[in-house]
Structures are given as structure tokens and as C-alpha cells.
């Protein structure tokens, strides 16, 4: 254990700045290490470049990061699989489908289809690999009570028809493990519970291959209101995202999270098409997809951020039988 470093010990942080940071909730260097420059600018009335320097030095002191050699990364990436969305257009946008060993974030307004996509992926994950499934079980961390087994039943029927397979709705429902998260702390703890369940199911016919968190940010948004709580919220979200990332790597699983967009424009966050959670969620999600409503059943998916795919859009439909072109 290294010696505890105080905010005041960071280069560029005088007593007055340290005081302002603490008032805004940035009480430790770990909190500063995972902050964005603009957050510090707003909290401490300092310039962008000073903020960036403070963040950099806090990262070094807090030892945020770690190494893995390129060959290790390559070996790990060889086992990545792609999960079908049910729409060829949508799959193409994603470079084949929703990847394992990644976090894929779907964000958009209410009714844009986030929960529908989540339900569809919960069905598709259970399909055999030759039908672009993952031959696996599913865990859903449901924070808003929007999981509907009836919807799963429709989608299983839809898939059976489309793929000309005999599929048992009952079996599909049995392989979906739903946990209701009562608050953000409970939500974070449920990832540990999911890891335990995944351990139990690891050597069975259907190991856990998909973890859904729907919605990722709703509890955080409701619980952490006010400027002084921002750093605390971001730190918790950051930990949560890293737990999810670790889960996806350890289980070669897809992690799918949903996120709302800002609805109340205010001085700091004016753009109503921006997802909640700021840069913490944005930088930890491997793929970000912005969903919006179009005519009737049509939905537009926009790939906003990806490490190796071009930005672009796809149009798909949400029908009673599920997602389709
Ligand atoms: P919030 O969670 O409120 O932010 O919204 P969301 O993005 O999760 O929206 P959701 O996925 O719940 O989308 C709801 C929409 O999906 C409805 O308004 C319908 O358009 C569509 N939908 C839901 N069920 C069915 C169905 O059985 N058949 C068809 N055709 N469409 C459905
Ligand atoms: Mg929803």
C-alpha cells in the first residue's frame, strides 16, 4: 500500500483549488483521476489545461491503468463472437453483430426501442452459434421493471418462424435470469451476484453469455442530484462500468446497457440528444448506439463511437415477432 496522497500534493492544486474540489465532491485523488477536464473546470474555476494536468498527475499517483502485452490482447480477441440483432442492416452497422468481451450501449429517448433490443438479444443469445447466437444463458439487471416474459414469448415465436426451427418458449424463459435492482448500490452488487451465477453455469450447456443492464443510469440519475454529488456519482458509475467490462472479458460475454438522453436542458448540459453519465459511460462503452424513432415500426440506429468501425446508420423494424430489417 502506497502512502495516501492528498489533493494538495498534486502539482497545480493550491489550497483554494483543493477546497473548491472538495466542496464539489472530489475528495480523493481517485475521484479526480476518473473525472473529465470540464468537470474540474466547473468545480474549481480553473482552466482546461490546468484541469488536464491535474487529472494526469492524479492518474499516475492513483495508479489507474495496467499493462497487457499485444500478443495477449490478440489471443484474447480471437475468441470474440458476434451476436445477431435479428436485422441484417443493424448487424452490418455493428460489423456483424453485438460483440462479446465488450460493452455495447444503446441510448435514446423513451420509446426508441432500447428495451425491445434488449429483449431480442436475450432471445438471440440462446440460439445456436450457426444461427449467430451464443448458445448461452442471459442475466438481466432490470432497474425499471420493464422485463416482459410475454414479449420474449412473441420473439421466440418470431425467431422460430424466421429460422424454421422448433423453439420452446418455456426453455427460453428458463435461461433468462432477471434481477430487480432497487437502487444504484444494489445494481452494483448484482454484478457480483451475476459473476457467481456465471461461475455456477460455466460448465453447463448454457453458460452466461449476455448481461443486460436496463437502465444503466436511471438510478444514478435519480439518486445523485445537485452539483456537489457529481464526482461521487461518476466514481460509482466508473466502478460499475469497470465491473461490467471485467465480467464481459472473464466470461467471453456481451454486456448490453441502456441509457436515456438528457431531457432537461440546463446551463451545463444543454444538448437533449446527449446520453446520461457523461464521459465515464462514453469512454467505457466499447460501442455506443443512438436509437431514434422513425415512422411506425421503423427505428434508426446510429453507431456513434467504436474503436474500429466507421460511423453510420441502419434502419430496422420493431415488430411483434421481434427485430427485423
Ligand atoms: P424507455 O425505457 O422508456 O426509455 O424506452 P425504450 O427505449 O426502452 O423503449 P421500448 O424499447 O420499451 O420501446 C417501446 C416501443 O416498442 C413501443 O412504443 C412500440 O413502438 C414498440 N413495441 C413494444 N412492444 C411491441 C410489440 O409487441 N409489437 C410491436 N410491433 N411493437 C412493440
Ligand atoms: Mg426501456
Overall description:
Belongs to the eukaryotic RecA-like protein family. Keywords: ATP-binding, DNA damage, DNA recombination, DNA-binding, Nucleotide-binding. This protein is an alpha/beta fold. The protein has 2 domains: 7-62, DNA polymerase, domain 1, CATH 1.10.150; 77-324, P-loop containing nucleotide triphosphate hydrolases (Rossmann fold), CATH 3.40.50.300. Helix content is 42%, strand content 19%. The protein contains 13 helices and 11 strands. It has helices spanning 15-23, 29-33, 37-44, 48-62, 70-77, 88-93, 114-124, 149-163, 169-174, 184-201, 218-223, 230-250, 278-284, and strands spanning 82-83, 98-99, 102-108, 137-142, 176-180, 208-214, 254-259, 287-293, 298-305, 312-319, 322-324. A 9-stranded mixed beta sheet has the order 5-4-6-7-3-8-9-10-11, with helices on both faces. A hairpin with a 2-residue loop joins strand 10 and strand 11. The longest helix has 21 residues, at 230-250. It is elongated, with a radius of gyration of 21 Å. The chain starts with 14 loop residues before the first helix and ends with a strand. The model has no long low-confidence stretch (mean pLDDT 90).
